[in-house]
Write a structure and sequence with these properties.
The chain is mainly alpha-helical. Helix content is 82%, strand content 0%. The chain starts with 8 loop residues before the first helix and ends with a helix.
Length: 104
């Protein structure tokens, strides 16, 4: 069970790469970096759990939306207005790229 609550080495590496990009693009302070990393890992684990759920696509979609909403709420508290705007733009761009990748 404890293994389920951990990211694989590949997932951890991808998350760290993703985080480093945000550190640069958002100009985060050292304190923000630590909190940003914790939030990102927390929600990465929730996403991993979601992918293992055997619920219907609709139920998983609703859970996904809820997870993203909660993450955005925490990020909005952490980031200033300009940083949060950039964060949202980057997330939207990543989602569009993921849709393109997954549709082929």
């Amino acid at each position: 069970m404890a293994q389920e609550l951990m990211l694989t080495e590949e997932q951890e590496a991808r998350m760290i790469q993703h985080i480093k990009v945000y550190f640069e693009e958002l100009g985060l302070s050292e304190d923000q970096k630590q909190v940003f990393k914790k939030i990102t890992k927390k929600y990465a684990l929730k996403m991993k759990t979601l992918k293992r759920d055997n619920d219907s696509k609709y139920a998983n979609y609703r859970k996904l939306k809820s997870i993203k909403k909660s993450k955005n709420k925490e990020m909005k508290i952490l980031l200033n207005a300009e940083q949060f705007k950039k964060y949202q733009e980057n997330e939207e761009k990543r989602n569009k790229e993921k849709l393109k990748r997954d549709s082929f």
